Amino acid sequence: LGLQKRSQLCILFSETGLWPLKFRRLALQLRYLCYTLTLPDTHLASRAVKESIQSARNAQSGWFSDLRRAAGTIGLEVSAEPTPENIAALEPSLKTALYRHIQDSVNTSPKLELLHSRPAYIGQQRKLAPPLEFRAYLRVKGRTHRQALTSLVLSDHCLSIEMLRRGTRSRAESVPRALRLCRLCLSAIEDPIHALFVCSASQELRGYRVAFWDSYDLTMAGTPPEHRGFSSAELQRLPYKECFPALLSSTESASVLAVYATRVLSLFQHRPMYEPSDEEITAYIEAHGQEGHPD
Predict the structure, then answer these.
(1) For a tag on the chain, would you pick the N or C end, based on fewer CB atoms within 10 A?
(2) Mean pLDDT throughout 229-251?
(3) pTM of the entire structure?
(4) SS3 of residue 140 by DSSP
């Protein structure tokens, strides 16, 4: 992913489809328990597990009591009288708990606003994206372009919405969101959607945008009809927060977007960032209070 250490941990799983170790370990333990319960009583593994189950009944610590405790932390109840059937029946609930955990972690992070309840598109068919999946945009071949796009999606970029989220040596606190203005137009918050699709204050940026849409149409014209999706004109009529995930939904469109993202980030990186003065920040907080100072 090419991200920094301060990035959100949940995206390691939501974007790659990997399971967090806690859930993966629990899945393996439940499968092992299910397996040992089918073994004959003379098998050493069967005898060891049954002794652990008996220890749990006697309120003694052991492997089975630890398993029940770990399952309980994610809302699963492992029966004190386990059978192959009731243990196997826990697998769907384990997956549900995993998906809920990842989705909640993403949806409650202000840094991951672009991923909140994000849609996915197959052609022009819209659906809710699964919480865990290896995402199409990670298949973009060029490393530089892929990492530029990833940094925008996962909020690890040079735009003001992220850079002014943190304090500095000269400024202890973050800048209120409403004051993280675009360094080019000074009229809107400088976030990925604004930089990619909205800001028109720079002729160079407008040129990049026109070239991007032209390249998009040319690229998608060469894909199979069932994967072609929207034309550039149709995408530009969508709300921006729908247009962006639609572009991410296929490797072909994401590859074109990644090249554009690289150019846009380079343009912004070479322009001085707008930073409001301490007086402006103080006046804003006094007028709006801390509730007007979201992350």
Answers:
(1) C
(2) 93
(3) 0.87
(4) coil
